[in-house]
Structures are given as C-alpha cells and as structure tokens.
Amino acid sequence: MSVIIDGMDQHCTSIPQLHPTPKALSYNDQLHTHITGALVHGRGQHAYIDFNEYPHDSNLTINILLNILVRYADSLPPVLYLQLDNTSRENKNRHLFSFLSLLLELNIFKKRHHWHHHILSSHPDGQPTLVEKSFADINIIHLPDKLQPYLEEVDIEAWRSLYELLTLEEEENEEDSTVRWPICDLLIMAKQPTDRPQLEEHACNTEDETFRQVHIGPKVKEQRTEVRERDMVATYLPEYSTHWPQVGCIRSVHEDKSLQIEWYTGTLTSKWKEVKVPVKGQKGRKQLWVETIDSSSVILPPFSLTAGEKLPLQTVNGLREKHSSYFQ
User: Fold this and answer.
1) Where do the DUF7869 domain residues begin and end (predicted)?
2) In CA terms, which of 50, 68, 85, 265 is 20 to 30 Å from 200?
C-alpha cells in the first residue's frame, strides 16, 4: 500500500480569492484554509480541510494516516510505503516514527526494513487525549464589512453565518464520551489475532459488544431521543408559527406524554434566556412563562445550551434543516 500525504501552501487556499486583489484586503483579513491531500495509489484520493483550529504537527499527520488506514482496513497489505515532506514539525520526528513502529508491533503491517528497530519499550495503555479545537487564530469578524463593496449581499450573509458557526463550535465544549481512538477500530476491522495481551488491551473487545461504524470526518455526538426534566428542546406549535425557533426547558414529564415547559427566547446565534410574563392582578410582578404541550411537538433531540447560553451547533444545523419543512 502506497500513500502520499502533503499539505498545500495556505497562501493559495486562503479565502476569499478576489481578482484583482483589492488593496483594502490583506492576507491577515482572509480565512486561512488548510488543505491536506492524500493519494492512496490505485485506490483513491482524499482531502482533509481545516481552518487552523487544530495544531499542524505530527498529530495531524498521524490522524490523517489513521483515517486512511481505517477506510481501507478490510484490505490492508503486509507493507506500507509512506511518502511525506522532509519536515521535522509534522513528519520527521519521534512521534510519527513511534506511531509507525506501533503499527508494526501490533501486526497491522508486517514487513520490517533493515533500518527498523524497536522504538517502543512497551505498548501504550489507554488512548490519547482528544485535542480540543482552538479558534484563537481565526479572526474574520470584520471581514463581511470589508467585503461589502466587492460581493453580493447573499455572499456577505454567508460569511456572517460562517463566522457565527465557527463561534458556536468554539463554545461547544461538552465532553464526548463516544470518541474512540481509531487504532482500536483498525485492529478490529483488520481482523488481527487477539491471542496477545497487548492486542486485547487495545481493541477493548468483548464478545457481546457491537462496534459502531467508523465515522470519517468531524466528530458526531450520539444523541438520545427520550426527553427528561431540565432538557432543552426545540418544538413546533402552529399557534406560535410567527416565532422561530421555539425553544424551551422541560420542567416536568407527565404520564400522558405531555410536557410542562418553560419558554425561552433567542435566535439561532444569540444567547437564550427565560421568557417572563406579567402576573395577573399583581402589578409589576412577573413569572416564568410555563405551558403544557404534547411531546409530539418536539422536533429535535434534547440538548443543553452551551457555556455561552447559546444553541449547540448540532441543534442550529437541525433547526436550519427543519425550517424549510415548516415555512415553505
């Protein structure tokens, strides 16, 4: 199996690309888009795109290589030929060579060249810590204003939406317990022998366990569908069709499947807060707006607000998909 992995010059892929380039726009005003290409000879071509929310180091190279190996796990040959740039930051370093040595130690690949020696003194336990996204180097908040003279309004709005989505991703900091180190799935899918203690430890395999299909791309959280007290839910009630989205917090769940809900107010990208209404007969006093609705009015899986009191990105995307269904 022959694999070539290489990244493009970011000056060529930063967006927007305007010709001729306006003098009012500089390189720092663009969204620095990084594209890494992978060519698997005779099998396929793959592209991995990021906005520098992840560090560009050996972890990026290992991640891409692992995704490729998992993709072709059912037909891996005994030898891997890997072609990379001669850069110490991403490729030519002890981290990548230790990972390649681990692939041999776990019998994922079997051929050892004359230069190969045992780099690892033992197989690592557990799985690596998940690298958190960081948007500190992404600053396009003022870009829509700068682009106003050069683009149509629909394009300007698309840039604003992109900035809002990136902001939501930055605030989405809930722990994802479903994340698995892909090498565990690689061992299982490649049907490696499990008579060695190290392999059993890495595969985390049990006879009754059903393994999920491997997902290549952004991490996806498994969402439950049943609702509980204090869940946030998105609903659609025809009598409130002028209000979108309709979001509330479940106060109680009744046996007849009705829900007592506290209504909230906000938009797809703003903060959400409780709605308070005047108390009848008590001038100046307000209380939470509480209403009982049927559970069939809930249109998305339950969720929690982000640390910034905003809708999580997955809910925002779900509401945008639902919008056309209810308002066409």
Assistant:
1) 24-111
2) 68
